[in-house]
Specification:
Layout: H1 16-19, H2 23-29, E1 33-38, H3 48-55, H4 67-74, E2 84-93, E3 99-101, H5 109-119, E4 123-124, E5 127-135, E6 138-145, H6 179-195, E7 204-211, H7 219-223, E8 227-230, H8 234-242, E9 246-247, H9 254-264, E10 270-273, H10 277-284, H11 287-298, H12 301-305, E11 311-315, E12 332-338, H13 352-355, E13 361-364, H14 367-375
Helix pairs in contact: 4-8, 10-11
């Protein structure tokens, strides 16, 4: 559950997990190893990319991945080695260029797709620009050299100021050879803002997460398991493709995700089921909506357990407290259920407060896969 962890509501004095009714997860918690994980390190607020890499068993500080690459892979774009990608938001700005809404009211995906078609295909200084709809207000931009000798380095700063009340920032080169790429990116932003001048509410664009393709060891090689990603949101499909997982198609609701799990259960060893609703509600500060998302997942747990998995891990990639409306540094609730679990039966609920009593304590996210593999008895003894 993306953005799972929370902090106390200022009036209710409880977290989203403490308010939500999740009887099935509660029952599992009393028979599971419970605790928390730190996605990157203690006190560090992670982005979604590194946070998921940690869960998948990779060192997120070794493999730095820009969101643009993940979003473009997530919408099945055929990324080439010389391409440069960025993640985009359609946003609302006033006549002075001040950003008043970074998400343009979370415009509908079909409206966003029309705007992408308006901007797609422009050529800037020997670079073709692909503008790809992702979901709601989000899109991906891929810059592709169409003339020999052009290099587009991904070491660029974001134009997105990350909060309202500020202007779009100029993209800057972070290394000497990224100056040309920065120039192309800034020219595209100016072009897009001009084309969108009469659009409402999406009359400007914000870019962040510039990235080139990276090399990363395939998940199948690292863990010896055939893996399937089940997700609705393109970015998480892109991340899964990057590490070599297969990606299921046709999911558009939480229920359909768990139905897809059942249909594919015999063909894979590992499943990554991603729930976006918890995170988007957290970022919007919508406490009741995040509570409902948690409860919706809980209703799917009995059907999942009927499949008799060797190991079931329930966690998030990071915490997104509604009270903060953003990712946070707080450790993420983690539960590992298996027949080999060493558990504390005094844990009665799937909540942050109860998990303080758990047998896992606080661990780095990278250890989750090791514990899951051990719980499934898939790891050999170390040493004589």
């Amino acid at each position: 559950m993306d953005g799972l962890g929370g902090i106390q509501h200022p009036e209710l004095k409880k977290t989203e997990l403490e308010i939500a009714r999740h009887d099935h997860l509660d029952a599992l918690a009393s028979r599971s190893e419970c605790g928390f994980h730190h996605p990157v390190d203690i006190g560090i607020t992670p982005g979604s990319g590194p946070a998921h890499l940690g869960i998948f068993g990779y060192d997120p500080t070794e493999y730095e991945i820009g969101r643009g690459l993940l979003d473009s892979l997530g919408v099945d774009f055929e990324f080439q080695k010389n391409d440069l990608a960025a993640r985009g938001n359609f946003a609302t700005s006033n006549s002075d260029g001040i950003i008043t809404d970074r998400r343009a009211g979370r415009i509908a995906s079909d409206a966003s797709a029309k705007l992408c078609r308006l901007l797609d295909g422009v050529e800037i200084d020997g670079v073709k620009v692909f503008v790809l709809p992702v979901k709601e207000h989000r899109f991906a931009v891929v810059f592709r050299p169409i003339k020999d000798g052009i290099k587009l380095a991904g070491a660029l700063s974001d134009s997105d100021p990350q909060k309202e009340g500020l202007k779009n920032l100029p993209v800057k080169a972070l290394v000497a050879d990224a100056g040309f790429a920065a120039s192309v990116a800034n020219k595209f932003i100016a072009y897009a803002d001009e084309k969108l001048a009469d659009a409402h509410p999406a009359n400007s664009v914000l870019l962040r997460g510039f990235a080139n393709m990276i090399d990363i060891p395939p998940f199948t090689d690292v863990f010896g398991m055939r893996a399937l990603c089940i997700a609705i949101y393109p970015m998480y499909k892109g991340l899964s493709r990057l590490v070599g997982m297969d990606v299921a198609k046709g999911c558009d609701t939480i229920i359909s995700e768990f139905e897809t799990l059942k249909k594919n259960y015999a063909g894979y060893d590992f499943f990554f089921i991603h729930i976006k609703n918890t995170d988007s509600a957290g970022e919007d500060g919508d406490f009741s909506r995040k509570v409902k998302a948690i409860e919706d997942v809980d209703l799917c747990i009995p059907g999942l357990l009927e499949l008799n998995p060797d190991v079931l891990v329930v966690t998030g990639d990071h915490s997104t407290p509604c009270a903060m409306k953003s990712h946070s540094w707080h450790p993420v609730p983690l539960m590992i259920y298996s027949k080999n679990a060493r558990y504390n039966p005094d844990i009665k609920r799937f909540t942050e407060r109860e998990f303080i009593k758990g047998t896992l304590g606080q661990i780095p996210a990278q250890s989750i896969m090791t514990l899951a593999m051990s719980s499934a008895q898939k790891l050999a003894k170390f040493g004589a």
